[in-house]
Amino acid sequence: MKSALAVPTSAVSRNALVLLAAIAAGAALYWLRGILTPLAMAIFLLIMIDGVKRFIEHRTVLTERWAGIAALIVVILGFLGAIAIIVYGARGFFDQASTDAVALGPRLDQILADVYRLFGQYSPPTASELIARVDLSRYIAMVARQAQGVVVGAIFVMVYLGFLLASQDGFRRKLVNMFPDRPARSEAVDVFQRVRGGVEGYLWVQTVTGAMICAAAWLLMRAVGLQNAEFWTFVIFIVGFIPVLGGAIAGLAPPVFALVQFPAYWPALILLVGLQIILFVVGNMVQPRMQGDNQNIDPVVVLLSLALWGQLWGVVGMFLSTPLAVMAMAILAEFKGSRWMAILLSGDGEPYVEKPAAAPKPRGRVKTPRPPTLPEG
C-alpha cells in the first residue's frame, strides 16, 4: 500500500488558516453588503474622478484644483443622471406597456400559437391562462423594492464619496507614516498606481466600446421602428459593464419586445441578427485591440468573479466583478507568497510584465575614436 504524502504541520496549519480566513471574509462581505456596496461604488467613483481629473489637466489649461472640481461635477452629474434615467425611464416604459396591455393579449396568443404549431401542437394555452399562474403582485413588489433600493443606495454612495474626498489629504500623510522608508513607500505607490491603472483601463475600454455598440444599436432600432429606442440604448450601455450577462441582455431584450410590438416577425429577426453582429464585431475585433496588459484576466476567472460577486452583492457586485478581479490580480502579484494566485487569475500566466528600463541616451555629440596611427618605417 502506498504511504501517504508527508506534509509539514506548518504548511497544513497555514493553509487551514487561509481557508478559514477566506470563508470568514466571504461571510462578512455578505452580511455587511448593505454597508459595503455603497462604499465600493463610492471608491469606484473616486477612481473615475481621479482619472477624469488627470485627463482634463493634461489636455486643457485648467490647474489641478479646477480640473479636480470639473471632474467631480462631471462624474457626479453622470452618476445621478444614470440613476434618474433608470428610475424615470423604467417608469415611463412600464406606463406605456400598461396602456398597450389591451393589444398585448391577442399578440401573445398569436405568438404562442405559432410556437406550438412549430412543434406539432395545435391547442396552445392562452396568455391570460399563463399569466394567471404567475403571482404578478410578488414580482411588482420586488421591482418596487429594487427601485427604492437604487435611490437609497445612491444617497449613501454620495455620502461615502463626500467623506472619501475629504480624507484624501489625510490618506497621503498616513501613507508616509506607514512607509517611512522611501523604497517601501515607492513600492506601495507603484502597487496603487497599478491597481488604479487596471481599473481605469477597464472603464475606458468598456465606455468606448459601449458607446460604439449603443450608436450602432440605436441606428438599427430606429430603422426598424422599435418603441423606446433611447431607453433600450441606455440599457445596452449600462449592462455592457456586466461581463457575459450584459451581452446576452443587450442582444436578446430588444428583439423580444419587438416580437410583441410588431405584427410580423421580421423586425425582431432583423434586430436579433443585427445586434449579434454588432456585439460580435466590437467584442472580438475592437475590444481586444484596446485592452492592455492590465486587462490580462482569464475568461474563466471573469465568469467566476461575476457569479461570486453577484451572489454576494447582487447587481452592484455584477458591475464591480471585473474591476475587483483586476484589483485582486494586481495586489496579489506584488507579494511572493500570493503571486501564484495572481498567475492563476491572469490570462497568459503573466500578471504583469515589467518593462525593461530604457538605456540612457548619450548626451551631446558622440566622438568616433580615430584608428591608431602606425609608426613609419
As a percent range, the share of strand residues is under 5%
Give average pLDDT, whole number. Answer: 76
**Secondary-structure element string:** HHHHHHHHHHHHHH
Low-confidence residue ranges: 355-369, 371-377
Major sheet details: none
Tell me the number of strands. 0
Helix content: over 70%
Shape: globular
The end-to-end distance, rounded to whole angstroms, is: 90 Å
Radius of gyration: 28 Å
Secondary-structure class: mainly alpha
Oligomer: single chain
Number of helices: 14
Explain this structure to me?
This protein is an all-alpha fold and 377 residues long. It is 76% helix and 0% strand. The chain has helices at 9-31, 33-59, 64-99, 101-118, 127-132, 136-166, 168-178, 182-224, 229-239, 245-261, 266-290, 299-313, 315-332, 339-345. α2 (33-59) crosses α6 (136-166) and α8 (182-224) packs antiparallel against α9. The longest helix is centred in the middle third of the chain and has 43 residues, at 182-224.
Can you give me a brief rundown of this structure?
With 377 residues, the chain is mostly helical.
